[in-house]
Amino acid sequence: MYMENVLRQAGALPYRIEPDGLRVLLITSRGTGRWVIPKGGIEKGFTPAQAAAQEAYEEAGIKGSIDPVPLGSFTYPKRLNSGRIKPASVLVFALRFEKQLKSWPEQGERRFAWMTIAAAIAAVRDPGVPNLLRRLQEIHGGAPRAVAG
Fold first, then answer.
1. Which residues have a Cβ under 8 Å from the Cβ of 7 and sit 6 or more positions away?
2. What is the CATH number of the domain that holds 69?
3. Cα separation of 4 and 99, whole Å?
4. What percent of the chain has pLDDT above 70?
């Protein structure tokens, strides 16, 4: 149910398959430095999937192919510039890593790390993100799968 007082956001869960298994990319938030996924508002003219891919670029310099079907969603308390807290609902999309650019808009403002699913689940604090990480593991945790197209 869409409510006027809930911010709508899109998030990306960048992943890559390494020889020893699945890795996901987490970044630090600008305010608190806690581990989060790239996410932000859905700009006019963008689909939620396109907005998620744009956030991965702006916040981590990541380019890749975004899955048009969301992994799921979660809601978290977003602190606004005014200091008020407003609920934000984030639609999350898997993004298959292709490359990281040499520079990107928020490069000096955040840290990033590639983590195993278990390490990412232990690191994130946003409720709902661990379930999305587990879902990504279920979908992409085995051998790399062929992509139809």
1. 41, 78, 86, 87, 88, 89
2. 3.90.79.10
3. 37
4. 92
What SS3 state is found at 147? coil
Q: Token match 């020893």: residue? A: 20
In a domain? residue 147: no
Range of 90's domain? 7-140
- pTM of the prediction? 0.89
Structure-block tokens of residue 96: 């298959």
Distance CA 133, CA 111 (A): 19
| pLDDT at residue 31, as a whole number | 81
Lowest mean pLDDT among 22-26, 50-54, 144-148: 144-148
| Mean pLDDT value of segment 96-100 | 97
